[in-house]
Amino acid sequence: MPETVFFGVVTFLLVLGPLVIFHELGHLWTARKFGVKTLEFGFGYPPRAGGIWSGVTPVSVDDETVFEIDRDLLVGKIATVRTMLDEQGNQIAISVRKRIKGDDGEASEGGLIVTGKVKSLDGNQLVVADMLWSFNWLPLGGFVRMVGEESCSAVGSLGSKPRWQRITVMAAGAAVNAVIPFILLPLVLMIPSEKPVGDVTIMTVFPGSPSDMAGIDPGDKIVKVDGRKIENISELQQAVTVKLGAESTWEVERGIPNIFARPAESQYQYTGDIDKVTLIPRWKPPSRRVVNEVTDPDTEMTLARARVFDVSVGLNTIIKVVNEPTDALYEISSGDAARLEPPAELGDLLRVVVLAENAGQQISLDAARLHDNGLGIKTSIQEGATGVQISTENREIVNDGLSPLEAFPLGWRHSLDTLVLTRNALTTTLIGSSNPQFEGPSTVGPIGIGQLTGEIAVAEAGIGAKIITFATLAATLSLSLAILNILPIPALDGGRIFFVFVEIARRGKRITPEREGLVHLVGFALLIGLIAVISVQDVTRIIKGESFF
């Protein structure tokens, strides 16, 4: 556990940190292109550990300029210059003093001050490096500080720029995050890595399911889905999940039962003929409860029929230790319980699991079935989006990477798939979908992401496989950041863009900076509250020992 926590923190910073830095660099680059005054680019968040000053801002000095720092010692010092503008818009120094707390805030709001490192004082001109590249102690990403994000009166402020430029600057960070996967995923595909391949074969078909209605039978091989070559189960799952609720075309090679097959031989024969079938993967596939006698075929299934699809199901999953059992399906005697491995005592409630490890809490499936064959690990059958169970036949491991001509089109398709999968995941949350593809936590916060990266870091896999997994995760997170930031949520980029569109709708009449700032403040507080709630869920999951894998 300590190892997972340590690597979780390190890998979290390595995966998420650069995504935030690139996001902020997008804001910085476009702001500078449009002449917006930028004051600071922060690596991490304060408290500040140090920084490097850059930039060249000239300020004129005259006989009336008040120097609170010795002129001869001024070069190389961090100072604040209070200024005024002459008729030509040039800055004239009123006073020069040490920088104090609050100067950064005044400069950000468009005040007539210049704060930074004095580069030179030559005659009547003072040159200040007023752009700080700061390094901060909290390595959680970064930020860019511009002049007057809401103010339209300050010289060089973001608020003074045309509406299209303000929208571009505010959307640039999300745009960078959206582009990253289209570069990263193709590069990942070019790295040689181990990949399982084989014949993806239908094992069973649920009656009344989309696959059943399309005429798919056990033994059929799935060759392609919507033009995508299918070589393993994960490729099929992705191809199906991106087409939820939409028509999907499958190319299948029909399997002919081999009634004379020996135990080691394939149970099906194949002629090589390919059929095309169409079906629609379901948003809400049904779940059927296992019962002795079926009264509603749409929601129930007999035990014998259910075990055709899943041998681990039963009529009951929890059994109580009692002195004299009256129903073996729900009770076990204390004498029999004492002989279990691990043993149980009178009054214990035992949950059926594959392999029991916790004494007094669990009973293995094999031991439970010896006691009563009606016991199982679960009491329902959950169908998938298409209603099939599959396996990979003739499985082998290949170790190769794609050429650039193959990797970039496939990587771009995976990037687009990730966008669709993100949308579908949100949709399933809203509609309460039972699709097993979206099992697990519906939302995770920074702590949950740290747990995930930590588990990947300590997993039993090669360095190459881990790098590919982290890169794929980074691409997914980058797209998620792009989508989240562009939504009209107060305090985020999309929320600020929303106010620009409100301004357009009001024919140029702006919401006052005070009101807009209040909305963003409330939105930020709510966002922090939501992150706190999600973080509590993440911590609870970790305390319970639940894993992502």
Notes on the structure:
The chain is an alpha+beta fold. The protein has a domain at 287-382. The protein has helices spanning 2-33, 103-108, 163-190, 210-214, 233-241, 303-309, 334-338, 365-371, 404-431, 446-458, 463-486, 493-505, 513-543, and strands at residues 38-54, 57-60, 66-67, 78-85, 91-98, 113-122, 125-129, 131-146, 193-205, 221-225, 228-229, 248-257, 268-279, 287-291, 300-302, 318-322, 331-333, 349-353, 362-364, 380-382, 388-400. Helix 3 crosses helix 9 (404-431). The model has no long low-confidence stretch (mean pLDDT 87).
TL;DR?
Helix content is 38%, strand content 28%. It is α+β, with helices and mostly antiparallel strands and 549 residues long.
Topology:
Layout (H helix, E strand, L loop, with lengths): L1 H32 L4 E17 L2 E4 L5 E2 L10 E8 L5 E8 L4 H6 L4 E10 L2 E5 L1 E16 L16 H28 L2 E13 L4 H5 L6 E5 L2 E2 L3 H9 L6 E10 L10 E12 L7 E5 L8 E3 H7 L8 E5 L8 E3 H5 L10 E5 L8 E3 H7 L8 E3 L5 E13 L3 H28 L14 H13 L4 H24 L6 H13 L7 H31 L6
Parallel strand pairs: 3-5, 14-15, 16-17, 18-19
Antiparallel strand pairs: 1-8, 2-7, 4-5, 4-6, 6-7, 9-21, 10-11, 10-12, 12-13, 14-20, 16-18
Helix pairs in contact: 1-3, 1-10, 3-9, 3-11, 3-12, 9-11, 10-13
